[in-house]
Amino acid sequence: MEIPTRDTTLAELEKLAASGYVYVVLDACDAPAVPEKARSLGEECAMSLYNGTAQEDYWAIAPYLCKADAELLHWIKDSLWHDAWGIIAVSKADFAAMRAHFRKFLMVQSPEGELWYFRFYDPRVLPVFLEASTPEEAHDLFGPVQAYALAEPGAEKLKLLRAV
């Protein structure tokens, strides 16, 4: 499926973040500084997408949902930009709704019936998945998200993927 895209900038996302419309899913698997940063933001602004034993067992490599502000966006740019650190989501939904939405996609079933972790929050995975998705699958993954933004390593711009 073809997803509408355009370039965006960190400055544009900062303006949206000031209105409370920007979230990031930080991938601790590729960015070891993430769990400590999430902890420093507090549970009202940052939380692992995992629950229960998975949260306890995999805290060091878990995906973390964070409510973004300009300071967090700058930390990402200064600390993680050249890694596959995660994705940005633009949404008017509240933190609890966004966490519930993203948690639905953490596990997928293989054709053989096995459960696999789905790393949709990996910026190398999300665009490939969306391109191969049916309209219904893409609609489900967007849900309350108006757009996803992906950093392009080595570039100042971000790619914005808009809901259809």
Your description of this structure?
With 164 residues, the protein is an alpha+beta fold. It has one domain. 35% of the residues lie in helices and 26% in strands. It is built from 7 helices and 9 strands, in the order E-H-E-H-E-H-E-H-E-H-E-E-H-H-E-E. The chain has helices at residues 10-18, 34-41, 52-57, 70-79, 95-103, 126-132, 135-142, and strands at 5-8, 22-27, 46-48, 63-67, 86-91, 107-109, 115-117, 145-151, 158-162. The strands form 2 sheets. It has a 7-stranded antiparallel β-sheet with strand order 1-9-8-5-2-4-3, sandwiched between helices. A two-stranded antiparallel sheet has the order 6-7. Strand 6 and strand 7 (115-117) form a beta hairpin. It starts with a strand and ends with a strand.
Q: What spatial order of strands do you see in the largest sheet?
A: 1-9-8-5-2-4-3
Total domains: 1
End-to-end separation:
10 Å
Considering DSSP H and I runs of 4 or more, what fraction of the residues is helical?
Answer: 25-40%
Largest sheet: 7 strands, antiparallel
SSE sequence, one letter per element: EHEHEHEHEHEEHHEE
Q: Count every helix, treating DSSP H or I runs of 4 or more residues as helices.
A: 7
Principal-axes geometry comes out as globular
- Arithmetic mean of pLDDT: 94
How much strand? 25-35%
Q: What is the gyration radius calculated from CA atoms? A: 15 Å
**What structural class do you assign from the helix and strand content?**
alpha+beta
The overall strand count is 9
Low-confidence stretches: none
